[in-house]
């Protein structure tokens, strides 16, 4: 880490589109894990093919172009919740069936009961 800043110029793989705001990032390692971070680094200029980043430390730098969060579609959310609800109801009915049908009791039924309980949980 430096007391001042230094500029680094990074070239884009493709030209910026209208409304895109690239972010200057660096690879931050903590222990054995890593993640992109913008702490100590910001974009101070550039054009459609280059970005100029002012940073306070040396590191592995990159320009990240995904500036908006990708959201799931409403249909996918509905299908997920309906599917999970139907699955839980069916597992609950299977657990009740295994518990109430003592005449069919065997090692296989016991294993299926335990599997159904684990899946339900």
Automatic annotation (TrEMBL):
Membrane topology note: Multi-pass membrane protein
An example GO CC term for this entry is: plasma membrane
Q: Which is an annotated GO molecular function term of this record?
A: G protein-coupled receptor activity
Q: Which InterPro entries match?
A: GAIN_B, GAIN_dom_sf, GPCR_2_EMR1-like_rcpt, GPCR_2_secretin-like, GPS
User: Superkingdom, according to UniProt?
Assistant: Eukaryota
Major localisation: membrane
Q: Where is the GAIN-B domain?
A: 1-71
Xref: Pfam families: 7tm_2, GPS
Q: Which UniProt keywords apply?
A: Disulfide bond, Glycoprotein, Membrane, Transmembrane, Transmembrane helix
Where does this protein reside within or beyond the cell?
Membrane
Q: Where are the transmembrane segments?
A: 78-105
Q: Which GO terms describe its biological process?
A: adenylate cyclase-activating G protein-coupled receptor signaling pathway
Q: What is this protein called?
A: AGRE1 protein
Which organism is this entry from? Answer: Aramus guarauna
* UniProt gene name: Adgre1
């Amino acid at each position: 880490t430096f007391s001042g800043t230094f500029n680094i110029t990074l070239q884009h793989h493709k030209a910026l589109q209208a409304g895109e705001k690239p972010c200057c990032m660096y690879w931050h390692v903590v222990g054995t894990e890593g993640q992109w971070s913008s702490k100590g680094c910001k974009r101070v200029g550039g054009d459609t093919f280059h970005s100029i980043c002012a940073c306070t430390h040396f590191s592995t730098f990159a320009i990240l172009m995904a500036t908006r969060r990708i959201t799931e579609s409403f249909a996918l959310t509905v299908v997920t919740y309906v599917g999970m609800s139907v699955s839980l109801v069916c597992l609950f009915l299977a657990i009740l069936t295994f518990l109430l049908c003592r005449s069919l009791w065997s090692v296989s039924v016991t294993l299926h009961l335990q599997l159904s309980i684990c899946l339900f949980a």
